[in-house]
């Protein structure tokens, strides 16, 4: 979809989960800059979410924050209807929020797996389900108008699915489940809804990495650089705009998935 100008009252609306900070915030800002009205999801980071809303609203009016614990099924089922009630029609969901806690085969537990599965895979599936139901209730445009609804879900994945190591077992399992769900959802929710995966490489640093270590690790790819937040956000926008993409994943990692890493970046 080619969004209208930011001043248009008919700007398309997107829910971005985990949009208060880090990669989710960069995605929200990029979409707002392209004319999308952004529903900014957050869990605990109200101050950060408020700043993201203000920055998005400066680019396209109407940005609003919505709190939800993605590990709570009841809360997740209420999230999209709450956004619809507040903002009207919703055209897309970007599932960027992720639980990312370290475990291995030695420390694995059902509790750790369930925590990651609920927030990283289950919530994304429920939001896709809710968006599909919302789109189905909207009056379809006349076939001859060429203005068919271009609704989509974009799921943030991880290059480590194509380049596995033994670290972050439950996180990786949850992202693998979501990658498999991309195909199943694309089949079951078509033709009303497209489902696309975007898999970044090492993109942002964390408390586990010094700036120098992050810079060195970022160069470990065939292209000599991994993904930046701007690269990932641009790919999400592309996935939302391109009507011919569904049921597949776009890897945005400088080719890191082509290399072999024995450990997760944060533990190298």
How would you describe this structure to a colleague?
- The structure is a single chain.
- With 268 residues, the protein is of the alpha/beta class.
- The protein has one domain (13-137, 150-267): Rossmann fold.
- Helix content is 41%, strand content 14%.
- The longest helix is centred in the middle third of the chain and has 28 residues, at 110-137.
Query: Distance between termini?
Result: 41 Å
Q: Which superfamily, in CATH terms, is the homologous superfamily?
A: NAD(P)-binding Rossmann-like Domain
Largest sheet: 7 strands, parallel
**CATH class type:** Alpha Beta
CA-based gyration radius: 18 Å
Number of domains: 1
Secondary-structure-derived class: alpha/beta
CATH topology label:
Rossmann fold
> How would you sum up the global shape?
globular
Uncertain spans: 1-8, 142-147
User: Which percent range fits the helix content?
Assistant: 40-55%
- Order of helical and strand elements: EHEHEHEHEHEHHE
Total of DSSP H or I helical runs spanning 4+ residues? 7
In total, the number of strands is 7
Strand coverage percent: 5-15%
If you average the pLDDT, what whole number results? 92
**Largest sheet strand order:** 3-2-1-4-5-6-7
Q: Can you tell me the CATH architecture?
A: 3-Layer(aba) Sandwich
